[in-house]
Amino acid sequence: MAMRGNKKEPELSASVPMRIIGPARLTGPIIDESVPIPLATFETPLWPSTERGAGLSRHCEGIRVVIVDERMSRSILVQAKSAQAALEVRDALAAERQQLQNLTAESSRFARFLDLHSQIVGDLLYIRLEFATGDAAGHNMATKAADRIMRWVLSAFPQVRYVSISGNYCTDKKVSAVNGILGRGKNTIAEMGVSHRMCERFLKTTPEKIVDLNIKKNLLGSLISGGVRSANAHFANMLLAFYLATGQDAANIVEGSQGFTHAENRDGDLYFSVTLPNLIIGTVGSGKTLDFVRHNLHLLGCDENREPGENARRLAAIAAAAVWCGEISLLAAQTNPGELMQAHERLERL
Fold this sequence. Notes:
By secondary structure, the chain is of the alpha+beta class. It has 2 domains: 215 residues, 3-hydroxy-3-methylglutaryl-coenzyme A Reductase, Chain A, domain 2 (Alpha-Beta Complex); 94 residues, Hydroxymethylglutaryl-CoA reductase, class I/II, NAD/NADP-binding domain (Alpha-Beta Plaits). A hairpin with a 2-residue loop joins strand 10 and strand 11. Helix 3 packs across helix 4 and helix 8 runs antiparallel to helix 11. The longest helix is centred in the last third of the chain and has 25 residues.
């Protein structure tokens, strides 16, 4: 029950339509099986569109998914008496990796310190701390470790004072270049080859048309619009729908949807991949105890007794596959004049 003044009010919830599409065929070191994909969205054409990509994966070699890197970051901000003092603290911190590892371990049995990066602006010292966080997306775990490290920094270096537990160098739920460069979340790639025949049969287009559109729309279009480390058609659509269905912090689609679609014509066949450098996702933590979330995580096989981090990696792989399915389907539709609008008119009430 929610409280307003002295009155108790019933908890309210917002219902978003959800469907299970697929299954999609996945291959690779993380998953080698067909899996369903739950998507919660008000954009109803997303379901059949993503379904088309999933159907394509079942008739081809399967979507291969790899995770290049994974980490969660929090940047603390302190202010020194001068730029020189800030520089001295930065250099001293670089030699304290063992202490930072110890402080991180004290904050949580799952958190592990990975690395730190620093920027100095005037007498301000921005310290980006990076952690492994097991099966959690890791926002709170990283903040808790950063809070302990902040207290130690203020004690060990009296020449600096507290400004903020988060200095925006993280960067959390904002568009930036730094996350793609240094890493935040799971850097995940989904790829698959599609024969010319399967392109024509399932996607009603050709590899040549998809490659040409990807260059002119995703790459050049993103370039002239000033896109930041991003060149894709609609990663955010599939990512938000998957996030809502699996209890994720939906605001993380801001950085999560920054990514790249890559398409090549290889001897008449299509190579198609999606790269999501900032896929922030977890199988434990806030939002994961809701009944529908628990049901979906079980459906995806992401609630099993595995080594720490393995359930979250599996979930990230499925999320990337969902993005692959929806991305190739939309690009295929946009190679044909009128197809996109016709689909919306047929599947939505205008």
